[in-house]
């Protein structure tokens, strides 16, 4: 159960994050490392892309959702829920070439696959009513007619998605295109996806699950490995950070506050690179950075840390060990990708996100999710401005907004322009307690029923989701 004490604890984290100005170094909060898990003893696993069956006009994959026994913590076995038996698999797709996935559900619970950030027809968007029951299978078709971006696949079944994602069902879906490939950014083995999340383990390696236990998940996993180390060359790397945790925000810092370059967010490349020393990564979000390890030299070890860990844990996330020289033809251009003009908004809407202490539910505009109710009816091609109000100043709970189907622009936060790192297309925006943000969104091409919701997963499960019908 979500207690008031627990609510206030997450509030403290959220307030600290809100207070940290972008681009400034924030000092590490002291925390006690848990002796049982020494960090940096396990190498990072860099997943190889899954191999599709190439068919005329599209790439075909079969993803079986099933339980699997894997080693996450050294010397122990963990039963996970997986795609094809592995944690953090990777799919690489190309703009203009559709991907078709046959999802075969061998779990004992329903599953509804959603491509987060995907511009996807309704029948393949993972609406909770389209769930795949145990023993059944279903085809999902992703047209990939959108700009290059780092997306991710996860469950969207209403009752079990938080637990399914927690137990391992999260895949990265990397979409490339010609525009991005002609830029001289780091490529190939120097373009690395890092899925960040947390978990709570029992001593024997079993995962401990509690919907409301977010601040007891003290083990940080990167691509399924606990606080790993990664041997890198003294050159530039592109790092694609994906937060697949149910609720944990990361406020990331490299080494003693080294500078790196923020190049992309949820919807792909920023208009221009942003040099920074700190990076916020909220649940569901993606942030991409370029780190130049040649500045540090062979022999340096740089810890990536979360500067606002929960009480009783250390902030270490992973360590980069610079182990060899390498040539480096890559560079970060001064301009990356212009953000499209969405036109003038013809519709304004307001969404107040709030926790109801009497019922324990999380509400949007005073109501919990109802699959049989359509909350809003946006028109195809008409730009809208949404004001997202966090009504939980009293409890200190952060909330986010993630509309399906199309990415949006952040117009302002509390009336002020967004930070340069939020100047690109986003699909998930977090609003700290008591604050508001305005976004502009325009739904295009596909009609039908889609969801919009907070991406703190216990909040969604406790009602913080709405349904929109996009009409012509
Ligand atoms: Cu929320």
From TrEMBL:
Pfam families reported for this sequence: Cu-oxidase_2 (PF07731), Cu-oxidase_3 (PF07732)
Family label: Belongs to the multicopper oxidase family.
Top-rank taxon: Bacteria
Enzyme class: oxidoreductase
InterPro entries linked to this entry: Cu-oxidase-like_N, Cu-oxidase_C, Cu-oxidase_fam, Cu_oxidase_CS, Cu_oxidase_Cu_BS, Cupredoxin, TAT_signal
Record protein name field: Multicopper oxidase CueO
EC number: 1.16.3.4
Signal peptide: 1-35
CDD domains named among the record's database cross-references: CuRO_3_CueO_FtsP (cd13890)
Residue span, Plastocyanin-like domain: 67-173, 351-470
Keywords: Metal-binding, Oxidoreductase, Signal
Protein's UniProt keywords contain Oxidoreductase: yes
Quaternary structure and partners: Monomer.
Catalytic activity: 4 Cu(+) + O2 + 4 H(+) = 4 Cu(2+) + 2 H2O
Organism listed in the record: Streptomyces oryzae
């Amino acid at each position: 159960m979500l207690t008031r004490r627990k609510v206030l604890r997450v509030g403290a984290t959220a307030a600290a994050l809100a207070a940290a100005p972008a681009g400034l170094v924030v000092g590490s909060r002291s925390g006690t490392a848990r002796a049982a898990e020494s960090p940096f003893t396990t190498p990072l696993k860099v997943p190889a892309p899954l191999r599709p069956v190439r068919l005329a006009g599209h790439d075909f994959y079969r993803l079986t959702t099933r339980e699997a026994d894997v080693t996450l913590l050294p010397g122990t076995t963990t039963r996970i829920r997986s795609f094809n038996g592995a944690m953090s698999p990777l799919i690489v797709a190309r703009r203009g070439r559709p991907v078709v996935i046959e999802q075969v559900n061998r779990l004992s619970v329903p599953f509804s696959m959603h491509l987060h950030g995907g511009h996807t027809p309704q029948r393949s968007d993972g609406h909770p009513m389209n769930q795949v029951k145990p023993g059944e299978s279903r085809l999902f078709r992703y047209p990939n007619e959108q700009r290059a971006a780092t997306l991710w696949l996860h469950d969207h079944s209403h009752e079990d998605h938080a637990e399914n994602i927690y137990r391992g069902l999260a895949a990265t879906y990397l979409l490339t295109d010609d525009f991005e490939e002609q830029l001289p950014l780091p490529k190939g083995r120097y373009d690395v996806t890092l899925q960040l999340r947390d978990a709570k383990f029992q001593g024997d390696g079993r995962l401990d699950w509690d919907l409301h236990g977010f601040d007891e998940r003290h083990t940080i996993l990167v691509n399924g490995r606990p606080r790993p180390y990664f041997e890198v060359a003294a050159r530039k790397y592109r790092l694609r950070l994906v937060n697949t945790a149910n609720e944990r925000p990361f406020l990331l810092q490299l080494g003693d506050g080294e500078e790196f370059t923020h190049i992309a967010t949820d919807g792909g490349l920023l208009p221009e690179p942003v040099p920074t020393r700190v990076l916020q990564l909220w649940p569901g979000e993606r942030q991409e950075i370029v780190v130049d390890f040649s500045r540090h030299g062979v022999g340096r070890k740089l810890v990536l840390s979360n500067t606002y860990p929960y009480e009783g844990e250390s902030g270490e996330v992973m360590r980069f060990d610079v182990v060899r020289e390498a040539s480096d033809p890559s560079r970060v251009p001064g301009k990356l990708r212009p953000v499209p003009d969405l036109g003038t908004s013809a519709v304004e809407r307001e969404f107040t996100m709030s926790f109801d202490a009497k019922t324990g539910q999380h509400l949007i505009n005073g109501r919990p999710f109802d699959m049989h109710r359509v909350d809003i009816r946006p028109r195809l091609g008409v730009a809208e401005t949404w004001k997202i109000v966090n009504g939980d100043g009293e409890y200190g709970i952060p909330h986010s907004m993630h509309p399906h189907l199309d990415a949006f622009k952040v117009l302002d936060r509390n009336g002020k322009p967004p930070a340069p790192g939020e100047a690109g297309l986003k699909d998930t925006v977090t609003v700290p307690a008591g604050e508001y943000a305005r976004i502009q969104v325009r739904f295009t091409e596909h009609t039908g029923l889609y969801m919009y919701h907070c991406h703190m997963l216990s909040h969604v499960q406790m009602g913080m989701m709405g349904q929109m019908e996009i009409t012509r």
